[in-house]
Amino acid sequence: MSVSSSCIFCSQIISNNTSTKLLHTDDKVVAFQDINPSAFRHYLVIPVEHIATVKDLQPRTQDYSLVSHMLDVGQMLLTRDAPNSTRYRFGFHQPPFNSVNHLHLHCLALPYSPRWKRLKYSSLGPLGGFIEARKLLERLKP
């Protein structure tokens, strides 16, 4: 397993050197609440292994399986914690729009709060921006 000492997610969240409450842990991923939420519920699901960004993922079984598992965990958490929500979003920021260089799935139970934050979760076409988890899975299909 690869970790990065300069990565806040590796050095604090995964190594459990923080007061952040973990919502889910297993041998592949860790999930927790975003410290600056953009929606009614806003969780992050990150791989235990350090993977910098979506650009480091390849169309292969291993990467497809990881992203699929991240999505399953995010859906399970939001279904559990925001069962009355009628709209959810699941996706990743793409460089240069990612805030932390450790792959992380944004899991949002809408509405956005405040409403302007929805702009952070928009696709910018060829410039990148936000990519829906399902669209990334299509790209990663082996």
UniProtKB/TrEMBL annotation:
Pfam families referenced in this protein's UniProt entry, alphabetically: DcpS_C
The keyword Hydrolase appears for this protein: yes
Catalytic residues of the enzyme: H106
InterPro entries (alphabetical): Histidine_triad_HIT, HIT-like, HIT-like_sf
UniProt keyword list: Hydrolase, Nucleotide-binding
Tree of life domain: Eukaryota
GO molecular function, a single term: nucleotide binding
Location of the HIT domain: 8-117
Residue span of motif Histidine triad motif: 102-106
PANTHER family named in the record: ADENOSINE 5'-MONOPHOSPHORAMIDASE HINT3, APRATAXIN-RELATED
Name the record gives this protein: Bifunctional adenosine 5'-phosphosulfate phosphorylase/adenylylsulfatase HINT4
